[in-house]
Automatic annotation (TrEMBL):
GO cellular component, one term: nucleus
InterPro entries: STI1/HOP_DP, STI1_HS-bd, TPR-like_helical_dom_sf, TPR_rpt
Regions of compositional bias (Basic and acidic residues) in chain numbering: 208-225
Record key words, sorted: Acetylation, Chaperone, Cytoplasm, Nucleus, Phosphoprotein, Repeat, Stress response, TPR repeat
Annotated GO MF terms: Hsp90 protein binding
Organism name: Pyrus ussuriensis x Pyrus communis
Pfam family, one: TPR_16
Protein name: Hsp70-Hsp90 organizing protein 3-like
Length: 578
């Protein structure tokens, strides 16, 4: 509230409304009676109104509150000058210069005060009958108020003449031939004067022709006019000035810290960032930079503290949401570095998730995904127990014998959680899925079983059985044959081969019923491999030759690759050989 009234006072002062300025500064003083700047500004406003006693009181109060502030003594000297107390003014200006020897305002004020003191000791200047009419700001007020002279104030040469007369009333003799000056003199003396032409009420021209000003007589020495104290510009508070200075210093410290960080001189970087934070706690980038340095140094707890501080301070200051997100991401990174078990990843994941709600950054998203994967892998490692896995698999076997396949699947799944590298558990669960008609799940488990142990024949029998039930006889035949490479005498694999050959030959002989043929063709057309064969231009020519060119067809039968594709089409019911 005090700052608001102060701002209004400054604006009023700048526009020349000194009474309003006094009012606003008084309101501000009521709200902040210990603010020396407010008394200083009101002193200047009072001086502008020629109320030098009030200006002096405020200047004394300024010095009382802030005795080491040179501006207060400038106000004090100006007020003393206005009251004609030149000795006191000289003392005040000298006191201010002791604190600020290079202050130009104090130097100028001291010179004016000393000159005025010398004139006062020399005695009063010769009496001029018009001297009082031109003294003080009242002259300009009267000329502005009178309609007959108001327009003259817009004419620079007239204003210059009146300023010369105000400085030295004796200069009036130089300008008596100018009718505007005579008109102004009449207004100031409140009488009507005849102009130089003898016409009593001659109308003054709006814009008289410019004339060369007569030079003052060399033999006449102009007496120096008494300096009139001028109000100085409104001051920003010392606190504001100091804050700007501290911010600039903080930026320098940050830049020095960045340079040290690039050189990997982390201890020096920490010192500079810490100094920057002390100088300006309203820029969280300083805190974030220090957190990044702690992260590089492996001091993760210090990094986390700084990140939490940056988030808290950033929300208080309503900082850019990207900066808050960066702090949360950096905190998550430090937590990941400290993680030793799966549960340690939970606060890191939470921190990354919060960062993404502030700003969706691809780097943060990747860190979140990596943390979730690491947590899952650790959970599996922590849960790993081959002995318990074997016990769970045996329980599943008991349920399988009892034809309780869902219960068996549950036990096999638990066994795989305890030991995800057990091919037997995948094989047994594949059998359960097959019994329940969940062929895709059964096929997936059978393939995983073979992947973990390519020599485990049960994996091939499980996979072949699933493919056979899915009526993919060619694929099932390939699976059984692959298994026989590892165990040529395995009866289950041999039986699988026999069943597949029977189904394939059945299609070759045309023994399929119309319904079976239609079903097999529909299934074959959905097979990507069959689709590729039919779209192959070479195979399309081969099929045409089989129908129209027996000689060419005979040559094609000698190509095992071509015949393998033909056999696939036959098995799928797409082609029939007669």
């Amino acid at each position: 509230m005090a700052d608001e009234s102060k701002a209004k006072g400054n604006a009023a002062f700048s526009s020349g409304d000194f009474n309003a300025a006094v009012t606003h500064f008084t309101e501000a003083i009521d709200l902040a009676p210990s603010n020396h700047v407010l008394y200083s500004n009101r002193s200047a406003a009072y001086a502008s109104l020629n109320k030098y006693s009030e200006a002096l009181a405020d200047a004394k109060k300024t010095v009382e509150i802030k005795p080491d502030w040179s501006k207060g003594y400038s106000r004090l000297g100006a007020a003393h000058c206005g009251l004609g107390q030149y000795g006191d003014a000289v003392s005040a200006y000298k006191k201010g210069l002791e604190m600020d020897p290079n202050n130009e305002a104090l130097k100028s004020g001291l010179a004016d005060a000393q000159a005025a003191a010398a004139r006062s000791r020399a005695g009063p200047p010769p009496m001029n009958p018009f001297g009082d009419a031109f003294s003080g700001p009242e002259m300009w007020a009267k000329l502005t108020a009178d309609p007959s002279t108001r327009a003259f104030l817009q004419q620079p040469d007239f204003v210059k003449m009146m300023q010369e007369i105000q400085k030295n009333p004796s200069n009036l003799n130089l300008y008596l031939k100018d009718q505007r000056v005579m008109q102004a003199l009449g207004v100031l003396l409140n009488v009507k004067l005849r102009g130089g032409t003898g016409a009593e009420d001659e109308e003054m021209p709006e814009s008289p022709p410019e004339r060369k000003q007569p030079e003052p007589r060399k033999e006449e020495k102009k007496p120096e006019a008494q300096p009139e104290p001028e109000p100085e510009p409104m001051e920003v508070s010392e606190e504001e000035s100091e804050a700007k200075k501290r911010k600039a210093e903080a930026i320098k410290e940050k830049e020095a810290g960045n340079a040290a960080y690039k050189k990997k001189d982390f201890d020096t970087a920490i010192q500079h960032y810490t100094k920057a934070i002390e100088l300006n706690d309203e820029d969280i980038s300083f805190i974030l930079n220090r957190a990044a340095t702690y992260l590089e140094m492996g001091q993760y707890e210090e990094c986390i503290k700084d990140c939490e501080k940056a988030v808290e301070r950033g929300r208080e200051l309503r900082s850019d949401f990207k900066m808050v997100a960066k702090a949360l991401t950096r905190k998550g990174t430090a937590l990941v570095k400290m993680a030793k078990c799966s549960k340690d990843f939970e606060p890191a994941i939470e921190s990354f998730q919060k960062a993404l709600t502030e700003h969706r950054n691809p780097d943060t998203l990747k860190k979140l995904n990596d943390a979730e994967k690491a947590k899952k892998d650790l959970e599996q490692q922590e849960y790993y127990d081959p002995k318990l896995a074997d016990e769970e698999r045996e329980k599943g076997n008991e349920y399988f014998k009892q034809q309780k396949y869902p219960e068996a699947i549950k036990q096999y799944t638990e066994a795989l959680r305890r030991n995800p590298n057990d091919p037997k558990a995948y094989s047994n669960r594949a059998a359960c899925y097959t019994k329940l008609g969940a062929m895709p799940e059964g096929l997936k488990d059978a393939e995983k079983c073979i992947e973990l142990d390519p020599t485990f024949t049960k994996g091939y029998t499980r996979k072949g059985a699933v493919q056979f039930f899915m009526k993919e006889y060619e694929k099932a035949l390939e699976t059984y044959q692959e298994g026989l490479k590892h165990d040529p005498s395995n009866q289950e694999l041999l039986d699988g081969v026999r069943r597949c050959v029977e189904q394939i030959n059945k299609a070759s002989r045309g023994d399929l019923s119309p319904e079976e043929l239609k079903e097999r063709q529909a299934k074959g057309m959905q097979d990507p491999e069959i689709q590729n064969i039919l779209q192959d231009p070479v195979m399309r020519q081969v099929l045409t030759d089989f129908q129209e060119n027996p000689k060419a067809a005979q040559e094609h039968t000698k190509n095992p690759m071509v015949m393998g594709k033909i056999q696939k089409l036959v098995s799928a019911g797409i082609v029939q050989l007669r």
